[in-house]
TrEMBL record:
Key words of the record: Signal
Top-level division of the source organism's lineage: Eukaryota
Name of this chain's protein: FG-GAP repeat protein
Organism: Amphibalanus amphitrite (Striped barnacle)
Keyword presence, DNA-binding: no
Record's signal peptide: 1-21
Keyword Signal recorded: yes
Amino acid sequence: MAPRVLTCALTCALTVLGASGLLVDPPRLLGELKLANAAFVEVYTAQRGEGDDVARKTLYVSSFNPGNIIGDDKVYYLRAPGRQLAPVAEWDMKVLDHHADWTNDICYTPPEAVGFEGVTVTSGFLVPFKTHGKLQVFNTEVEPPAGPYLLTTLDTKDWAYHRALWHDMDGDGDLDLSTARFHQNSITGHITKSFAYMTNDGVNPADSGRWHQVEVIADGPDVGFRWLKLPSGGKTYDVLLGGEFWNERLTVYWTEDGDWSNPENVQSRIVDDTTGQVFDVFYDDLNGDGVPEVWASCFDLPNKNGSLYKWTIPDDFINGDWERTTLDTNFHPNSMLFGETMSPGSAIIFHPSDAARDAGNKPLILLSGDDDGNQYILQPVSQDPADWTYARQTLVETGGTTAGQVTADDIDGDGYTELITAGYTVGKVYVFTYAP
């Protein structure tokens, strides 16, 4: 089914919205790429390397196939996609990896972490033959990329990994690999949640047996998380923001001195335990007032209803009130014969153009409907920082059960943003642009 670009749900595009101005025209479709089981998409701009920003951008796409029980799932990459926009259908995606089962987020690895710039591929899920997840690092400074360097050789059970962020956990100056993970007992079905890190002792990542593991939080963050700096009592803390899928809550964790190596020193506060399942959490300035908000995509399983929430962070994140606002709701997933479904999913903020960002306009939100099979654009209906009303546009109706991750970047350097989205069930990658 061809994607359909639709007008917004609250009002028609380019309808006058009072003194605040106009809604932005939907982007135009540049093309579609057929890519089986396309799931997660990311674009990273390398700090190192030759050429301009356009030349140093790389598109990554991960995939997973529950029916592929005898082979591993592939991760693809494409250098300088902005130089190859005509036509998108002929993109020659290279295989980065085929050594992992059920590949998920592709996370950036900075050069100060392991001596080279690259990506960390996460993997693993609950379905049979896909439970043994991994954290694999690739050196993308060379072509083809070198790796994988496996940092989870010391796992004692089959963990599913969805995110891995480099962060100094023990105060020694080296960036360790922090991660949220979960494991399901094959007999009882019990889910074990764990937030841990792989200790970076300054060794080569190829020496995988020396990346020892420290579990920081048991029964806490399991899928989505972010690192923040937040104030309380005149002091700024190193804060872990956890979107706890299985516990159905939003939580913050911190230590007094920023050292996470001793789990007994970790303190926590439940921000909201009425969220439902938290698909992912984010930290961005949504209303253009210069102060970031916490926001999350969540799903109320009993009522089969998904929502996008934001929380205003108090001046004292430990003791103050976190005010929640609903940005959008009434997302309803498709049903599957086996397993639960949910909606919405991944998201990212963006400005349609450099000019819109430079003018100080509020960002738009690109949102995956995940198991409703669609992808959306949420537009603020005014530039008033106190107005949290959004107009929903359906960007793509994939026609399949599940859509994939979304991302936004000016990949060709023309000052206009491109949107790249995955259609998992239909096996496609869609590329849109706001350029005239």
